[in-house]
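Worked example

This section walks through a single chain of length 127. The input is the sequence exactly as stored; nothing has been trimmed or padded.
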Amino acid sequence: MAASEITNSRETVELFDIVYRLGVQLANVTPFGTLVAGTILARTGAFLVPYDPAGAGDITVPVGVLGADVVNPAAGGQFIDIRHIVGGGVRRELLDVFGVGAATDIDVDALRSVGIIPVAVKQLRKT
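Given that input, the structure is written out below as tokens.
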């Protein structure tokens, strides 16, 4: 019997018990270009936008995380349908605050308050 091998991909945000929300639109995709998996999202009205802790109003309150890259469609446009993470464990190292970089402890705590659990994951390797 062959030994089992566990592969832990550093490219996926999802870790465990992931809950997705479907049928929501990301607003103003054109100015953002590509949003990477792990981008923290906020809600403004009926649409999602990148979370901005330095902004004002609703965009300072995270509501989800992108589970996959979102690329602006070639035809352009203001909105794109997405599926985003609204609950479960995510890889903390891949969380991204658009235009700022890595998520801070304050961003992580805000995600925990909405049911998203950022987990620091140490990569194991053979020596």
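What to look for: The helical segments are 29-32, 105-112.
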